[in-house]
TrEMBL record:
The keyword Cell inner membrane does not apply. It comes from Pseudodesulfovibrio piezophilus (strain DSM 21447 / JCM 15486 / C1TLV30). The keyword Endoplasmic reticulum does not apply. It comes from the Bacteria. Residues 1-54 are annotated as: Disordered. Residues 1-13 have a biased composition (Basic and acidic residues). This is TPR repeat-containing protein. Pfam families: TPR_11, TPR_16.
Length: 304
C-alpha cells in the first residue's frame, strides 16, 4: 500500500511528497527601517571588498544598502543643427545581498506606479557606487508609501483566501496587480484563488503569466511555488503541471524535489515511463529520498 497524505519537504523548492494511489488526485516583508547611504562623494577611502579593493566615499555608511537610487544617461535627440542632448533618469530599488560578502547589490527597476517590478540584476559594489545615486526623498515620499500599500493589499488578499472569501481575495489580488502586473505573490495568489473556485480556464491564463516570470522560481517563493504546482495537478491541469515543473528545471537542475513533483504529474497523466525517468533523476541526486524510493517501488510492484 502507498501513503495517502501530502507531505512537503522544506528545501529550496518543496516536493509534493505523497506517493499516489491508483485514481488518487494526488508567503517578502517590507522593511520599514530601510535606509540609503548618504553619499556626497567628497572624500574617499579604499577598503577590501571581496577579492578587490574598492574606493568608497568616506561618508557612505557601510551598513546594508537598501532604498531607491537613480542612474542617468545622456542621449542625443535630432540630427544636424537640431541635435541636442537629453538627460534620461531611471529609478531603481537597490538592496545589498544578505547572503554574500557585500560585494554586490541587487537592483530592480521601478515601474510607472513607482514600485519595484521586473527582473533583478546583480551589480558589483564598485560599479554600483560609481553609477547609482541615492534618492532618499523620492523613496520616502513616493516609493515607500506605495510599496507599503502594495504589501498591505497582498496581506489582505492572502487573509481573504485563507478564510475562504475567494471573491474578495480575487478583488484584492487584482488591486495588487494594478500596482505591479509582474508581482509574483499576486499572480500565484490569483491563480490559486481561481483553482480553489473551480475555474481552471482563468487559472490557465495566470499560469501562462507565472511560467514567464523567472522570479516565480526564486527560493523566497518556494512555498507558493509548491502550492501552485500541487493545485495545478489536483485541478487536473496535468499538461500545465508538467510544463510548470519542466520550466523550473530550466532554472534549477539540481533539486530532487522538482524531479519528484514532475514524476507525479507524469504519473497522473498516465506517462509511466516519464514518471520513472524523473524518479531515477531525483534518486541520482538524493539516493536516500524516501518518498521517491517508495514511489518507484510502488510503480515496480504495479508492473510485476
Amino acid at each position: 500500500m502507498t501513503p495517502d497524505s501530502e507531505n512537503r519537504t522544506d528545501k529550496q523548492i518543496s516536493s509534493d511528497s505523497a506517493t499516489p494511489q491508483t485514481g488518487e488526485k494526488p508567503k517578502a516583508e517590507l522593511d520599514e527601517g530601510s535606509t540609503v547611504p548618504n553619499a556626497t562623494h567628497s572624500t574617499s577611502k579604499v577598503v577590501q571588498d571581496g577579492d578587490s579593493l574598492v574606493d568608497i566615499p568616506s561618508d557612505v555608511s557601510r551598513g546594508k544598502i537598501s532604498g531607491v537610487f537613480s542612474t542617468q544617461t545622456v542621449a542625443k535627440v535630432g540630427t544636424g543643427t537640431t541635435t541636442r542632448k537629453m538627460i534620461q533618469k531611471a529609478y531603481w530599488f537597490a538592496e545589498q545581498n544578505d547572503n554574500a560578502d557585500a560585494s554586490a547589490v541587487m537592483v530592480q527597476p521601478l515601474n510607472k506606479h513607482n514600485v519595484p517590478s521586473g527582473p533583478k540584476d546583480s551589480i558589483p559594489m564598485e560599479d554600483f557606487l560609481q553609477r547609482f545615486n541615492p534618492e532618499l526623498e523620492f523613496y520616502q515620499q513616493e516609493v515607500f508609501p506605495r510599496m507599503k500599500e502594495l504589501n498591505t493589499t497582498l496581506k489582505r488578499a492572502e487573509e481573504q483566501r485563507d478564510q475562504g472569501a475567494l471573491y474578495s481575495a480575487e478583488f484584492e489580488y487584482a488591486a495588487a496587480l494594478d500596482f505591479d502586473e509582474e508581482n509574483v505573490r499576486a499572480n500565484f495568489g490569483l491563480g490559486l484563488t481561481y483553482m480553489e473556485r473551480g475555474e481552471p480556464a482563468k487559472a490557465e491564463d495566470i499560469f501562462e503569466r507565472v511560467v514567464g516570470l523567472d522570479a516565480s522560481f526564486a527560493p523566497e517563493h518556494k512555498h507558493l511555488f509548491n502550492e501552485f504546482g500541487i493545485s495545478l495537478r489536483k485541478s487536473n491541469l496535468l499538461d500545465q503541471a508538467v510544463e510548470y515543473y519542466t520550466r523550473a528545471l530550466e532554472i534549477t537542475q539540481d533539486d530532487e524535489n522538482l524531479y519528484y513533483n514532475l514524476a507525479r504529474a507524469f504519473f497522473e497523466r498516465g506517462d509511466k515511463d516519464d514518471c520513472t525517468t524523473n524518479l531515477d533523476k531525483a534518486l541520482s541526486l538524493n539516493p536516500s529520498f524516501e518518498e521517491a524510493n517508495k514511489f518507484l517501488a510502488y510503480i515496480k510492484k504495479q508492473d510485476s
